[in-house]
Amino acid sequence: MFKLLSILWNSFRMALQELKVNKLRTFLSLFGITIGIFCIIGVLSTVDSLQKKIQKDLSSVGSKVIYIDKFDYTDGSMGNFPWWKYFKRPVNKYSDAMFLKSRITLASNISYFLQSGNLSINYNDATLSGVNLYGVTEDYVRIQDFKIIEGRYLSEAEFQSGTPSCVIGYTNAENLFGTAEKAVGKEITIKGKRLVITGLIEKQGTNFGPAGFDACIIVPYRFFVSLFDPKYVNQNLIIVQAKDNVTIPELQDELRGPMRQLHRLSPYQQDDFALNDINKVIGDRVGSFIGVLNIAGWAIAGLSLLVGAFGVANIMFVTVRERTSQIGLKKALGAKSRTILTEFLLESAFLCVIGGLIGLLLVWILAMVLSNILPFPIVIATNIIVLALSICIALGVLSGIIPASIAARMDPVVAIRTK
Q: Considering the entire predicted model, what is its pTM?
């Protein structure tokens, strides 16, 4: 045990000495390792943080949710969306949602959802533009994951009577009132109609999901239709959430029959509606993007690590030549070939680890900067650091195997005489 620790310490000390004595040569040789590890940790940390952000945002959509729409969200890849195919399809109606609610047994919640975007709201002399107005029915809050942090949500009586009441997104409240918490109880005006704010939605930040709540106002469906015709809004959906023990395909199968009945389709006619699995749609699109990002990151990292490996191997060849007489002396004093081999392999590994640690430091600095710019924080997970350091050690051993073997096979008499 003591001998092993001694070998480790000597190898680490010689690696630091090499770095100290030949600063420029060692730095240039390790630069490829640094860039490679920088790319690996940077890409993996960004992808990991992005996935966590998306998972959090998808939880706001609700688990196992189907969006019934006239548009198929999986159609029209490469930007060639066939609008002509969907434009004349019938739009959803409130009565359709209520019919489904009475017929579907595999759903836990069903909500009618209407959206009109880019509106202006007024409070006294202040005007706020770019607001999204959501008209919803009672089950909406049980499907979507958002919290009311001030005041209260809309009541059952307000939904039934279409009372001009609303809950407001955090960003809207902040921009309109200065302090978001002051919004509760205030009266705002939309298209000449006054609404009382009953509650404030918790701030979410940039959202990768289909619904963003920071810039929205949620009102009862019956009040919404007093402002807009459901046929001519940005979104007209029926949102259906499956029960805990029900799969999405099972729910889609049960929905298809009643929807065809509502649209009066014969057995030979194709569906004129789409049952979109929203979690899968977003997950597939994000997965494709993350796949491309991973491939690009590993390609750059692989090239950099290859260059770095040749640099480290070059350092070790030079080191073996410079220490030939020392190697001969060690062998003459009884050092075994495997000890010499181990020392040089560990020194090569330590050099790669030093390059990797520099790359890790650069990623940490970059992560701190980007966390203040991107809509999600970049966190360097422990398993990513372990993976990067493992790659450094493996690369160091591979880079030093040939020089270390040459050193281990030296004839001590010839080596001592070498100048």
A: 0.67
Domain ranges of the chain: 2-57+285-417, 90-272
Sequence length of the chain is 419
User: Pairing state of beta strands 165-168 and 187-190?
Assistant: unpaired
- Cα angle for residues 241, 244, 248 (degrees, 5° grid): 55
pLDDT averaged over consecutive 10-residue blocks of the chain (419 residues)? 54 56 63 79 79 66 80 65 75 93 92 91 88 93 87 92 93 90 92 92 69 86 93 91 89 92 90 85 69 76 76 75 71 70 76 82 86 78 84 82 78 66
Cβ-count burial 129-146 (b if 16+ within 10 Å, e if not): eebbbbbbbbbbbebbbb
Q: Give the Cα separation of 276 and 71 in Å (integer).
A: 9
